[in-house]
Amino acid sequence: MKTERGERSEAKPADILRKPGPRRGREHAIRGIPVSPGIAIGTVYDTTEVPTEAPRRAITPNQAEAEKARLAEAVSLSRKQLGKLKTRLSVLPEEAQEELAPLLDAYVLMLGNSRLLRGARKRIETELLAAETAVQDEAESIATLILAARDDDKPGLQRRAGEVREIARRLTRNLTATPFRSLKGVPEGAILIAEELTPADAALLDPTRIAGVATDEGGADGHTAIMLRALGIPAILGATGLSESAERGDMAVLDGAAGTIVLRPGDKATEKGRAALAAFAKERSKLAKLRRLPAITTDGEHVELQANLEIPAELPLIAQAGAQGIGLLRTEFLFMNREDLPDEEAQLAAYTVVVDAMGGDPVTIRVLDWGGEKDMQALSEGVAPTHSGPNPALGLRGLRLLLKRPELLEAQFAAILRVAERGKVRILLPMVTNPSEVQAAREIYERVARRLRRKGVTLPEKLPELGVMIETPGAALAADAIALEADFFAIGTNDLAMYTLAVDRAEAEVSHLYDSLHPAVLRLMQFATEAALRLRMPVSVCGEMAGNPRLVPLLLGLGIRCLSMNASAIPRVKQAIRALDIADCARFARRVMEQSDPARIHELVLNFGTGSDKG
């Protein structure tokens, strides 16, 4: 296996870098963040990366050009390294290739005329900073702005900030001629221990040789976590103190689903690990068989299971899960971390990747849902600079913004209409509160279609359906009227619960009040669902409720037959569906909807199928 290193950087063996510590003989269990399910039993192999020595350094005015030249050289070297890493992809599983390739492309873009490099060069010139100091300062400035954005998608913000920091880390190591981590000495069947792994490090792992991975730092939603899941390596991240407690050669039992690693396990822990390994293998085999089976109830009712897609890098996970399409493609990724707006061609290219990857399965594309809380420099500078007020979630966001700036909506509509020739697509409108908004959007939609046809662009004879997100109480209560203007509904339970209960889950002081099973939320869902069903119009649920197997009986009982969720949740939701009877679900839903006490509703849901839910 080739290591990832620059031409000037020669990695040292990890055992030379590591200071030997005292032998610890006692069993020691450490809890981290579950990232990739599976059980690993093997010996520890610890790997340490040479720390970067890059103290803050000022320069004189006559050194500025030399520093900019150093930066340009580091950029060139970083590009070469990423090119070598990309050639490594061919030996990885297909899912891992599809995960890492878009990320490497994003890294390469940041090594072009990006905000990071422009800012670093400016800091060299105006603040008289050495290249490595300028890169670090600019990267932290950008990352801080990203993380400070008011956005429900905190994992997405952390990923984007991590991308900026990772490129800055690479540039800094090349500027200081610091070697990268070497992983070629990891023995077969070992559990790899490290303080932190980057996505590029993960790309160097051989899933046929590595039994498991555990690190001190990291989280479940970062690119490294996605990569480890794509590789199918049992892993936990964020296990604080792990590197200090483990020694190379220690036996260990790692549980990627529970988020635990037991160092130097005794007989009881070892036996428990072996039993868990056998059980996991049996369960994985069972769920793998489900991928090819339909999501159908015991009485023959079919349920459509689709996946939500945040970024194209998640496509491999959707393929693995056996989703029947994408029920919610969020398009905000197209507008993030860029200073200009993506034009029609750029959007067409991105949608083409997704639609082609789905091989004919339906893709529901939600047009831009931006409120002032999201970090989109291209929009906030000149397009919609005035609406980041004290309540951005209640301001000019979603469809409201797009109708105010119709050129944004026209570009998205045009790109989606053009990609519709390649596969089945639908369009979803966010933040709708009244029928007139849907009417206005449809007028723009049909106008764009006419313009494209006049230009000779081939479009489907029947245009893609135009649907509405039901995510506000206003939309739910006006569902009868909105249904007359829309082709389908998608109930976004996360925002619907937030707006109904006036609770921001990210606010610690009130997060305990957030409850998607609150009777007010359920009644709004019921009202919207029944409005759609009366017109025989498709209706789906695409919030977190859809991915919770315990809530499936209630959702089916309310009349929902299409669920869209995180890809990883699909197998277990399908397993739940295949054990249910629709008549039982309908009776259960009626029982739940009679309740006014949230605690009682939770009790009924928890006890469904035990007999106590009928009392």
TrEMBL record:
Q: Where is the composition biased (Basic and acidic residues)?
A: 1-18
- Compartments it resides in: Cytoplasm
Q: Which cofactor does it need?
A: Mg(2+)
* The protein's Enzyme Commission number: 2.7.3.9
Question: What is the similarity comment for this entry?
Answer: Belongs to the PEP-utilizing enzyme family.
Q: Which PANTHER family match?
A: PHOSPHOENOLPYRUVATE-PROTEIN PHOSPHOTRANSFERASE
Q: What is this protein called?
A: Phosphoenolpyruvate-protein phosphotransferase
The source organism is Belnapia arida
